Automatic annotation (TrEMBL), chain A:
Belongs to the eukaryotic ATPase B chain family. This is ATP synthase subunit b. GO terms for cellular component: mitochondrial inner membrane; proton-transporting ATP synthase complex. The keyword rRNA processing does not apply. It comes from Potamilus streckersoni.
From TrEMBL, chain B:
The keyword Protein biosynthesis does not apply. Belongs to the ATPase F chain family. It comes from Potamilus streckersoni. The chain crosses the membrane at residues 73-91. It is found in: Mitochondrion membrane. Pfam families: WRW. GO terms for biological process: proton motive force-driven mitochondrial ATP synthesis. This is ATP synthase subunit f, mitochondrial. The keyword Plastid does not apply. GO terms for cellular component: mitochondrial membrane; proton-transporting ATP synthase complex. Keywords: ATP synthesis, CF(0), Hydrogen ion transport, Ion transport, Membrane, Mitochondrion, Transmembrane, Transmembrane helix, Transport.
């Protein structure tokens, strides 16, 4: 039963939930529009508000502009803050403020006189009637005090731990997670910057590579031109050579054939005779071995 | 009562900041504890009174002061118990009144 009642008054809070702001962020963003809109269209703007599509940091900037702008009255309306400890009480439940209020008027015993005197008045005038149900009140008070005696230390510890867990879950852990995420992002971005530095060298290397390719292409074309020109020149040379050779052969053949045609048998005989005579003369000068 | 579920008419986020259900956003006046007894009717007439909002605000002031704190205690349970006991006594006050011993006090 305690667990149903205790956690941040959840069961009681639910009763009055329809009075509470449904969505602070959307209302805050909407309040930049007219005041009438923000007052009457809380629920309808939650889904259709174009500010919902803004990036989170821009939305935060907008909300800060609304909540902490130049018109903000920080003296009379400081930002709400969760109290460290519960308000001080006397007798387990009477607020200390009552005593502080009465001290300057009645002295230090005044508040107790006021309380017990009031109780005596209520009993003597039978405004609080001492009927058979008064025993219930005694039992109720004893039971509550027994519960306080037994449970108060444990509950204080439990609530403190619970608040700490809630704070960690809702506030500290998201910050921690965000920081971790941003650290990873920063590392990645630094790596990207490092890679960009490398891109410079890569670009130069590629540029050099392209220059080399251009040079190679240039030289290949030069070689092609050289080859082509050489082939054409060789062709011309061969042509000239062939022509000259042919002319020469033709002239030689023509001259020889004409010479051979003009040799008579008489001349042939004379030449053979002179040859033999020469041979004999040679043989007499240089005898055969 | 036409604006149930909405913020108070006086609430302006640009001046008052984030909404707190425990705060009174009407025109500022001297605190009730410092009002002289003869000035109380004038003080009440100056103040805009909406019973639902008043109860709601009192509830949230109580919650923020005794319940929803970092180092919670047992006092809110005691106060709740006292409130419920006193309330149930008052609801059945006619039955209790029937049990009176004396007619004249």
């Amino acid at each position: 039963m305690l667990s149903a009642l205790a956690p941040r008054f959840g069961s009681l809070r639910g009763l009055l939930r329809f009075y509470q702001p449904q969505k602070v962020v959307s209302v805050a963003a909407a309040s930049t529009k007219t005041a009438a809109q923000s007052k009457h269209d809380v629920s309808s703007q939650a889904s259709t508000d174009p500010d919902d599509n803004l990036p989170q940091h821009e939305r935060w900037a907008q909300i800060n502009k609304v909540f902490y702008g130049p018109e903000r009255d920080m003296v009379n309306y400081p930002p709400p803050k969760q109290c460290e400890e519960a308000g001080k009480v006397r007798l387990g439940f009477i607020p200390d403020e009552l005593f502080q209020w009465l001290y300057p008027k009645t002295g230090v015993t005044g508040p107790y006189i006021f309380i017990w005197g009031g109780v005596a008045y209520l009993l003597s005038k039978e405004i609080v009637v001492l009927d058979h149900t008064f025993s219930h009140a005694i039992g109720f008070v004893l039971a509550v005090w027994y519960l306080k005696w037994k449970l108060a230390p444990w509950m204080s510890k439990y609530f403190a731990g619970r608040q700490k867990r809630i704070e960690e879950r809702l506030y500290l852990n998201p910050i921690k997670r965000g920081k971790k995420g941003y650290e990873v992002t920063i590392q990645q971005l630094e790596k990207e910057i490092w890679r960009q530095d490398g891109q410079k060298y890569l670009y130069e290397a590629k540029r050099e590579n392209v220059a080399l390719q251009l040079e190679a292409e240039y030289r290949r074309r030069l070689e092609t031109i050289y080859e082509e020109v050489r082939q054409r020149l060789n062709y011309q040379l061969e042509m000239e050579n062939a022509k000259r050779r042919h002319e020469q052969e033709h002239m030689v053949n023509w001259i020889v054939s004409n010479v051979v045609k003009n040799i008579t048998p008489q001349q042939e005989k004379e030449s053979i005779a002179s040859c033999i005579k020469n041979l004999k003369q040679l043989a007499s000068v240089q005898p055969a071995v | 009562m036409g604006n149930i579920g909405c913020y108070p008419v006086e609430y302006n986020p640009k001046v008052h900041g984030p909404y707190s259900p425990a705060r009174y956003y009407g025109p500022r006046d001297i605190p009730f504890s410092e009002v002289k007894l003869q000035d109380v009717p004038a003080w009440i007439s100056r103040r805009k009174f909406n019973p639902i909002r008043t109860v709601n605000r009192a509830y949230w002031r109580w919650v923020f002061k005794y319940g929803d704190v970092k180092k919670g205690g047992f006092s809110w349970i005691m106060q709740l118990a006292f409130f419920m006991a006193a309330g149930s006594y008052m609801l059945r006050y006619n039955q209790h009144k029937y049990e009176r011993h004396a007619k004249y006090h």
